[in-house]
């Protein structure tokens, strides 16, 4: 081997070692600077909480120590790192040299704010937002005299306005999204003279807002969604340096004249939602011409505001949830900087001008005109569009092929319209595609490329035929797949088991057929699947005992992103929340937002047979199970008692036999059960899970008896009547027997009732249906429309 070659190999090895050492040093630089006792204290603080999702290197990455003393001066906790209670004796309060402390977006469940924070007297920045803190803010917080930044937003804090009198260096103060009440101190801006950012949004503050000479430093003021009086607007109009103002939901008895904001020449953002506005000022007013964002949802506006014409720097317009009728004016789309337009939930019927080309020269990137009354052909989208939503209108014709030329388009929601024709092939390139409830025909395009970014695909309730595209296997980011209520004829797509992120998969009401457990396919287990809807198809065969082994619903693991509902929350300017039709507790629910913690299996309306697999008991996080309208035989599995989160169980219209397991009575959350039309026998178990059910939940089982069915499980013994007795005499004797037994029987019955009610009140009340105790049944679905989802998003946007 030549000498240069050896040198080259040696150089390569050294380069690799250098890279490894450099990467390690980056991760451990904190450990090199911080004193050993400080590192030990940091790990002690971590050990006080559940922190399995936050390893040592990620945790220490937010730590800085003083170059000379080695003491911790900065601690920024990663989001979602800690869960637990922050106690007064926490080792956190031993870091006396902290200047910067950010614990935001963690879960300190049911924790009050410890007064020990006041011992960290060197703090300059303290951020405790989105931590689930409760109770009042300790008065000792006013001892943190070096604070310039205090953020307690998005908690459940109560009481009056926290004491900040001594915090004379504050420039940033955020108490928004709490439950503070009372008035704002009249000398607030006098005692905190350097304050430039004040956010008190969404509390219960009342009264007015005092402005002093030092108030002119304010550039950001958010007072919206409190109970302030309308007269606060007059002093606010003197804050001439404001560039952001939120006065939504004021307590006014008169409409607001937009001319009151004319002195605010620096204003860029104005939020007026949920206020009544003076109609004349919407057409002609001296509103600040520098405005970039004007937000006016739910303001009872009936005509399109002409003031937009004068706002040539306008970027964001929101006039959603008003009562505006007619067509959208053509001049709106000519505003040169317009990028985000929300026209949702009005009564618009279309567009002025050439309806198909009116948007072609617009700069708009996010456009939502859902929930209106628009008809005709769909307009060609703007050239740089990113988000386009027009759901719940009455557009007709084909989906324009020009959408294929919009390379920036990521989200397209045209659901609940009257589109016809095929699905354009190019739509497989989108991140989110919702075409639900149209009249589309043909097959789903089978050209999802390798590495496709598709996360949500919903084409339910159309007239689609053919097979489910196998190229969906290339969509490694696919999270939500719904093709329900079409005419797709295919076998189960076992290849999709390899999708690493698929959480919702519904094939309901199609023509799928074949076995769900063929011997050559292995277990039907998806890595992340939470909802599997296969109802009303033609699946056949039996399920092996191990069918439910390794399913996601066996885990109680929470969503890693910390979101309540499934959807896309990662874009800076929009939120998309997935919605789904579900059958639950015997009811059909349309288009509800889906909790990330919700788990359901629905195999109803097929031709499955054999025993219900005992492995069903492994699905401890399952909330709803529907196996009705099949041909299952055998007993109800005892292992169902292990499905401790179960709320809804439907095994009706099968061929099940044996008795109803009494162990099901241990399922604390079980609120609905139906075993109707089987071959069950014996007494229905008594208890809160059964006694509150309708009689129809058990009908059609000739061998079942007991409440809530009519009749008793124990028939009274028949009396032997002497032969040859006269009917009249027999009747008299029986009547006498009744009278003789009535006195002591009534007395005994009343005595029994008294004793029972005195010593067994719950048993007594439950038997007679008078138990007022509420069972711990959790809500899994929100029946809010996607319009409400959008409004929540708008509120979040306005906070950003």
Structural class: alpha/beta
Uncertain residue ranges: 4-8, 13-31, 722-800
Question: What can be said about the biggest beta sheet?
Answer: 25 strands, mixed
Instruction: Please indicate the percent range of residues in DSSP E strands (runs of 2 or more).
Output: 15-25%
How would you state the average pLDDT, rounded? 83
Morphology call:
globular
* End-to-end C-alpha gap: 63 Å
Count of separate DSSP helical elements: 9
- Fraction of residues in H or I helices: 10-25%
Q: How many beta-strand runs?
A: 50
Instruction: Give me the Rg, rounded.
Output: 33 Å
Can you give me a brief rundown of this structure?
The protein is built from 9 helices and 50 strands. The chain has 800 residues and is of the alpha/beta class. A hairpin with a 7-residue loop joins strand 37 and strand 38.
How does the SSE layout of this entry go?
Layout: H1 3-33, H2 36-47, H3 56-60, E1 63-65, E2 72-76, E3 100-102, E4 111-112, E5 125-127, E6 133-136, E7 149-151, E8 156-158, E9 172-174, E10 181-183, H4 188-191, E11 197-199, E12 204-207, E13 220-222, E14 227-228, H5 233-236, E15 244-246, E16 269-271, E17 293-295, E18 316-318, E19 325-328, E20 340-342, E21 347-351, E22 366-368, E23 375-377, E24 387-389, E25 394-397, E26 411-413, E27 418-421, E28 432-434, E29 439-442, E30 456-458, E31 463-464, E32 480-482, E33 504-506, E34 513-515, E35 531-533, E36 538-542, E37 567-568, E38 576-577, E39 579-584, E40 587-594, E41 600-602, E42 607-611, E43 624-626, E44 631-634, E45 648-650, E46 655-658, E47 672-674, E48 679-683, H6 688-691, E49 703-705, H7 727-759, H8 761-767, E50 781-782, H9 786-799
Parallel strand pairs: 2-3, 3-5, 4-6, 5-7, 6-8, 7-9, 9-11, 10-12, 11-13, 12-14, 13-15, 15-16, 16-17, 17-18, 18-20, 19-21, 20-22, 22-24, 23-25, 24-26, 25-27, 26-28, 27-29, 28-30, 29-31, 30-32, 32-33, 33-35, 34-36, 35-41, 36-42, 41-43, 42-44, 43-45, 44-46, 45-47, 46-48, 48-49
Antiparallel strand pairs: 1-2, 37-38, 39-40, 40-50
